[in-house]
Amino acid sequence: MKDKAGSFSLVAFVAVLVFLALQRLFELRLSRRNETHIRAQGGREHASGHFGWMKLLHTSWFVAMIAEVWWLKRPFKPPLAAGAFVTFLAGQSLRYAAIRTLGSRWSVRIMTLPGVPPVDRGVYRYLRHPNYLGVILELAAVPLLHSAYLTSLLFSLANTLLLHVRIRAEERALDDHNAYTAVFARRPRLIPRWERFW
Asked: For residue 178, what are the domain limits?
């Protein structure tokens, strides 16, 4: 019975990873379409070197997760998996709220439309970077669906370092071209202030 439960949990884990891989490919395609639209309107790309590091991080995350679960035979722990799944859903919700709110201005690259005000509605009323918070939650939570603690910890740390650099570059570009600070100065970057919901 335990072997059947373990096999089912592995199948479910692989299904989540396949879903995420397909989702990422779809997002890259959507991003390319939006980038073409932004450039056609006179938009510019900034700090393009970050994109390669982001692709490497996310690709390595998938590989590390699979390797840890299979090679180290990480067990399925229902309470941990349940908490991780809820966190994963929260991350998904934040990311898709951000994508929907930005519409054709959403991109995985740092893009600006000079002279156009920054998007200041939807989930952006509460946070400067809801998409990045969603990514933080996903990178930490998905490995824990099958107790891949090392992947969760190491890639969360690597992602923190990358986002530290990327967010600064993104905010600098938006401030130079879109009066970003004037709109978002009092808004938190990643941790919402609960009083804003009331």
From this structure: 2-197
- The per-residue pLDDT for 1 is 43
Alpha-carbon torsion angle 173, 43, 185, 130, nearest 10: -100
Q: How far apart are CA 104 and CA 34, in angstroms?
A: 5
pLDDT in tens, 74-115: 999 999 999 999 999 999 999 999 999 999 999 999 999 888
Residue 130 is encoded by which pair of tokens?
Answer: 């809801």
Instruction: With beta carbons less than 8 A apart as the criterion, state whether 103 and 164 touch.
Output: no
Domains: count for the chain: 1
Only one residue has tokens 């603690």, namely 149
Separation between Cα atoms, residue 19 and residue 95, nearest integer Å: 15
Q: Which portions of the chain are predicted below pLDDT 70?
A: 1-6, 193-198
Residue 118, domain CATH: 1.20.120.1630
* pLDDT on residue 193: 67
In whole angstroms, give the CA distance from residue 176 to residue 191: 24
Supply the pTM of this predicted model.
Answer: 0.90
Provide the pLDDT for residue 6: 56
